[in-house]
Amino acid sequence: MANVMNRLAACADDAAIMTELRAILCGLAGTEGRRATLDEMAAFLTATEERWTLATQTLISDLSGEAHAQFELLDTLLAWATQETVDKNDTILETLILFFQVATMRLGDAGGVQRWLQWGDQVLAVVHQNAALMEEQKPQETEEKADEGIEGLRCNVVKIASLLMQLRDKLEEDDDATPDLKMVTFVWKVVVVLVL
User: Which of 59, 74, 69, 65 is nearest to 19 (CA)?
Assistant: First the structure.
């Protein structure tokens, strides 16, 4: 496959990047060097927060059951966003909530359970770390700025809590849901309470 970085860099705008990205992902099924290609794509997309956000939101909105390469790329994009060196601003946190939404919607369905649990754990860990960091910074910030940050965090936690309620209802209706799965989602609820 031609140099992925060059193909993406040659795109004139965001729409062209996403079109090229989809074309590359479609051509990845069963190819040699798949991991290297995905790593190149991730390196290009994580070069700027704007690219990461656009790619992540677009890939999540395009998800289908058989998009294995797409899921692998999303795994990598999520891992990038959860690094300590990445500034967790509102845009990144809101995008991370999309990962959590996919995880809660797909948990309990056939296949991919480990991926959804991992996504949920990673997002909750970031939200929890962000809350702790905001608590540390509170004395250094003006009251108005601190209030804005706390309000944004509360909004994200409310979204997560709402998704957990939906997941709880789904799992309670599913007689086949394993006790382990119910236990993990209980732990998630505890994390959300700690953040609040």
Answer: 59
Q: Count other C-beta atoms under 10 Å from residue 4's C-beta.
A: 22
CA distance 36 to 183: 36
The type of residue at 11 is: C
d(CA 54, CA 59): 8
Q: Which two tokens stand for residue 192?
A: 């959300």
Q: Which band of pLDDT confidence, cut at 50, 70 and 90, is reported for residue 196?
A: low
Cα separation, 93 vs 98, in Å, equals 9
Q: For residue range 165-180, what is the model confidence (pLDDT) as tens digits?
A: 888 777 777 766 666 6
Give the tens place of pLDDT for each residue, 33-54: 888 899 999 999 999 999 999 9
- Would you state the structure tokens that stand for residue 99, as one six-digit string? 């990962």
pTM of the model: 0.81
